[in-house]
Amino acid sequence: MAQKKWTQGQKNAIYAQNGSLLVSAAAGSGKTAVLVERVIARITDPDNPVDADRLLVVTFTRAAAAEMKERISLKLDELIAENPLDSALRRQQLLLSKANISTIHSFCSELVRESFFALDISPDFRLAEESELAILKAEAINNVLENLYENEGEAFSLFADYFSTAKSDYLLQQVVLKLYEFLCAHPFPESWLQKKEQMYSSECPITETQWGRVTVDYAQDAARFCLALAENSLALFEERPELGDALRSLLQLDLKFTQGLCETVASSQWDEMRGYLSSFDFSARFQSARGYKDDAIKLKIQSSRDLLKKTIKSLCSLFTQSEQQCRDDIRELAPLVHELFSAVRLFSREYEKLKREKNIADFNDLEHWALSLLVTETPDGAEFTPQAQAAAQRFAEVMVDEYQDANEIQDLIFRALSGDGKRLFVVGDVKQSIYGFRQAMPEIFLRRKDAYALYDPALDNYPAKIILDKNFRSRRGVTDAVNFVFRRLMSKEVGGMEYTREEELAAGAQYEADASPDMAFHLLDSGAQDEDCADILEARHIARMIHKNMESYQVTENGVRRAAKYSDFCILLRSASTHAAAYVKELTAQGIPASSQSSDGFLCAREVAVMVSFLRLIDNPLQDIPLLNVMMSPVYGFTPDDLAQMRIAKPKGRLYFALKSYAQEGSLPARQLLLDLDDCRALAATAPADLLVHFIYTRTGYPALVRSRRSGALGLSNLRLLQEYAKNYEQSGGGGLSGFVRYIDRLEEQGCDLKTNAAALSQSESVRVMSIHHSKGLEFPFCFLAATARSFNSDKTDEVLLHAELGIGIRRKDTQRMCRYSTMPRGAVSLELERDGKSEELRVLYVAMTRAREKLIVLSTQKNPRRYLETMASRLTGESAVLPYIVRGASCISNWITQCALMHPDGACLRELAGMPRAIECEPCLPWEISIIEGETPAAVQEPAKAGQAEKKEPAQPLDITPVVRRIVSEYPYQTLGAIPVKVSASELSHEESRGEYAFSTRPAFLQKEKMTGAQRGTALHAFMQFADFTAYLTSPQEELARLVEKGFITNEQRQAIPLKEISACLQSGIMRRFLCAGKQYREFRFTVKIKAGLADKELKPPYCDEAIILQGAVDCAFEEAGGIVIVDYKTDRVKNLEELRSRYHTQLELYRCAMEQCTGLPVRECVLYSFHLNGFIGV
């Protein structure tokens, strides 16, 4: 057997064994083979062999663990075949069955069950399914909130108001659950809560807080970008000085401002930065000499300045508040943070209690239990227990695969088991860490990598790192494209690392030369089509490329050329859940077999939905929708005509009774369905759910029907999996058919699902459509990276933002203005989450690009390619890399690839359309195929009907149109009510006669800056009467007005328009003195009530006048007096006398009377109009 040739780096990773090692293994570098060979080398070492059961090998999936164990076993078999008399090899083969080659959770489970007595838990606990845990969490959070509401204190009441809506406390529940899930990845959750709560009690300067430092760092990046834009614009101007002195002066001012901005931000004084940013002149006009309207350099300068202004405006939004205002927000939020953390502690205890009652656990429990056995928390950090020291002696070495996806708990466990990391061997690639949503922490890998020196075999130095940069998967053109893209995008600021020589891919695979480029970027023009059409257009373009390559391309497999197969092609999507189905459907329409995991989840897969409906029907046959689903399935084959006949014969009542009548009339499918139902219901009374499912399969033959269709293997796998879920349910306590159906119902209520079987998909001979996350670890000769123009997902709009270092970010709620606004801590957390998110998206792109073996094609669909390219080009400053500020500001993968394509030597067609005045110099690189493709409309590719295939139509029969004519000429019985709106306002009804007089209430532009109109003055007066403290005003009018302006209730302009003399007279009038003395007062009381239509239109006659319509409006002022309501309505109309005012508003006050009586349940004793113009009041 030929010996495998190892590179020097691989040899070092296999044979260096005297200390801690970190192996940074690039994509396609053969890390799994190296890990297997290292295990073999350790157990067959002639000088110091290690027994197989003294090695702990940890992977992150059970499939990977099984594969590794199988590879080691096969390797041992080969060695034994070469040395059949070697007893040491046979001994190792026996010990391999006891070797600890497993996932971290399998190992933790074994460790916990061995020491269950130390944890005070039952050793026979069961790991619950995620769906079961979701139901238990819902029960726990409801129990906690019910208890808190029963013992409601002032602090919790404020907390509940912040995170609840008028309809429910769903948001409050989600906030608590989100924080709990977040804490599960931290080794010491209680310490984390205490430290992050203390951040809200710190009194240090804002810029010295963690939040302030993050904000200032972001401002520094933005300032550097603005400076680069200003410098580049001025350099471009020098190439075209004839653009004019006015433009030169403007650009020089921009340069001076951005230089000052960099200096100011470097000083880290919050209010100073805020003041400097506010000094930028956004109104300065961009002026250039005439005759250069379409000049490329002028357009580039203009777009760069627009981007500069936009960047400065975004910085201004971060510094809207002064340092004192930021402190006020932090103090205001501190009690809320305390209450939230307390609620999470209560939830954690309740959830733990419910799990103990059911004797179940989740994966987080396994990790925390194992950690508590191995580590104790101390004021200085963590200390390893005697049990950890004993376990460390048990293992000669701990090997961890995919270490870049470890979290802090797992890292502590690995260190504890390896003598504080002294016998720890880890393998990973931080550029492929894409599981941040599972709390993976790539910074752990990076910290260790940065701290270790390169391994030198001559020195045998430890701890050390080994770099495996050879890629044995892809063609040189693919690896070169990956390097070209990530040299320009990845940095310490975005990505967590510089993409240096150490990180670059080195092509190590051997392929025959190919004339076509290995990397392609296709920009599709969708024209005026909406976003939904982009998937169709891209799928059709991909279909054409697949057809072409199926005819002509030879794929290399194991060094041998062969014809391409459909399974050689893969379409990668950032999010397959919402887009995969469209690609599969369109490829299938183009004659290409394609498959993907169900985009809607397991329970929504067609075959599963039919079976679940059958189970629901057996449980209760009077359910119409499940019965319809079963009837229309291939099992019974009812047609729409059958259903119509059933309902014509029996139009009312449950569908089940119509089905029985249809069976009595002789329908064979109906008889068969009823017979099957009866037999299944009889069996369900005694049999468990899984046996009932098996009986249905056998009785109906449904699995055979599913197997016969396209992608039948996946459907059949789903049916088997449904039976397996039913079996697991029965083993966990069960409850027969009814219990299993209720279990599925609760899952759907909680928005949960059951896991699908991904293995069946990989066995199909078809084009695979999958998410980038599912593709990790796989490779394909052809990879299409599609739907790249779709925006990244973001949780920046969530009510609560969480970060491991920065803690929690919350909006502040203004109860007076009834609005929420962002705070400085939330802004900082949002910035850091955005940076972390874009770093992970970069790594997702890296994973996607490194899946391709031979050809990588990236597609982007845009409505207006010219405008899009101009926007992308404006963000390039002429440097060899894209600035980190722009990388983190990208909205989609397409932005990154397009910017790199604009910088590539083969991107001339893009640069020409973008109006780039010149190319950007770059290092030598292999060619790309870059093209702009005109897209067709979705209807354009429809196959025309072939001649002779048109349907033959029977001669049209004469129609009886009498019923149609009768319906057309009949009179609508409620024609009279047609002119009355369903919803009206009281003010509209009272001003019905004078509408035409105010048809144009908006002032012309040239009058906008002049004095306020009468309507605007009236608005200002009403705002004052709504929000003012009347008692305070009577004591000190100017102080109260200043307070209203400061709180934002009125503007300075409105303040000047308020008539102080008239207001003082009003507040000292008899009616308002009664208002001030009243026990209960109403101001700007808004209502929505039902009234009779006759009140809206006096001309309506019975019965139409009694029809109900909706009335809405707002009462200016009202108060309770002597068991009734007194209404006061302010008016600023200029009238001659109070009688005129009463006649004008009589109807409105009557409607107010009706509304207030409905809303309060009290009689209205008096309605009063107060005139500010006449300084008097009159009863209505």
Give a quick precis of the structure.
With 1180 residues, the protein is of the alpha/beta class. The chain is built from 48 helices and 32 strands. The protein has a seven-stranded parallel sheet, sandwiched between helices. It has a seven-stranded parallel sheet with strand order 18-19-17-20-25-14-26, with helices on both faces.
Describe the model.
By secondary structure, the chain is of the alpha/beta class. It is 51% helix and 14% strand. The chain is built from 48 helices and 32 strands. A seven-stranded parallel beta sheet has the order 3-2-8-9-1-11-10, sandwiched between helices. A seven-stranded parallel beta sheet has the order 18-19-17-20-25-14-26, sandwiched between helices. Strand 23 and strand 24 form a beta hairpin. Helix 11 (210-239) packs antiparallel against helix 12 (245-267).
Descriptive terms for the model:
1180 residues, single chain, globular, 48 helices
Number of DSSP strand runs? 32
**Form type:** globular
Secondary-structure-derived class? alpha/beta
Output mean pLDDT: 86
Spatial strand sequence of the major β-sheet: 3-2-8-9-1-11-10
- Poorly predicted ranges (pLDDT <50, ≥5 residues)? 940-956, 992-1010
Give the amount of beta strand, in percent. 5-15%
Biggest sheet descriptor: 7 strands, parallel
Distance between the termini: 108 Å
Helix share of residues?
40-55%
Q: Please report the number of helical segments.
A: 48
CA radius of gyration: 37 Å
Q: What's the multimeric state? A: single chain
